[in-house]
Amino acid sequence: MTGMLTRWRPLAGFGLAALVLFGLAPAVLSDFRLNLLGKFLCFAIVAVGIGLAWGRGGMLTLGQGVFFGLGAYMMAMHLKIADAELKGNDVPDFMQIAGIGELPGYWTPFTSPFVTILAILVVPALVAFVLGLGVFKRRVKGAYFAILSQALAAAFAILLVGQQSIGGSNGLNRFRTFFGFNLNDPANKRMLFFIAAGVLLLVVALTRQLMYSRYGELLVAVRDQEERVRFLGYDPANIKVVAYVVAAFFAGIAGALFVPIVGIISPADVGIVPSIAFLIGVAIGGRATLLGPVLGAIGVAWAQSTLSENFPSGWIYAQGLLFIVVVGFFPAGVAGLIELIRRRKPRADAPRDETPDALPELEVAR
Q1: What range does the domain containing 195 cover?
Q2: Where does the chain cross the membrane (predicted)?
């Protein structure tokens, strides 16, 4: 009976999440709040990948904004081309203002919806694969890897600012259609929310399979005892690269969904600050758990949106304080704190004078 409950518990959890996202949220939230929640779901997709790479693999990824930005800008380029074609123009509107009369060569592939989707799925993962091999094969880890990934995010944002052919510091905005659907139609905006919700559930399901597979065990082993894993005949670099690529793959998809939902992408959305914001949500939710990064990312983003409406200048300080408190006193995050309380609670069928010899340690990334 216990085994059956254990087997069906994940399916029940996914069913409950689907009911909340596809039934309850559209019923109780206004169109504006539902669209805002769709934006937060994009952040949650990024957070799931960070939870896998950082929480399970011990890789402090401070540069996820790069992969998020790659997916976002590729989607934005296609949407701007599609809008220009509807008006009968050769180039998007911002290029006309800037005096660019011909579509740049690197924009041309994104005239095709198929090529755009394929690039969104492949390019961020391919970039992460190349970077991961170069970094992990040289045994770069810890603070050095974190600094390197953060520098990469800063360089990417600076590069975008200097490129007027992709909007410069203003970025790309004012999208009117999404693969032929009018973005001003509330029904289509709801469709985007449902797409984001479905992608999030798929991402969580895939990550769960990875976590509880043989590979997931190896990833945790590399995090805790990398030299022992190498002694057993495995290459820790290859194991790390897979997690890094999966996290980049998720971030690229999230960026592509972010663009039509929010309606803008700029260098400010892909630099150091957004990359750290992704990390804060994961840390607060619980980086070593499956659902902790999701709930943390949504909760922090929702709090930022709500509190910044009333305290515009105070939220950033509250966010920093919350991050310090969690990292300093609750390293397992909110999910780890809940698990600790649950394990401390005595079982109803246990004798009153029975006390456990030792409390099982929470699985926390070191």
Answers
A1: 33-268
A2: 37-55, 114-136, 191-211, 241-265, 277-303, 315-338
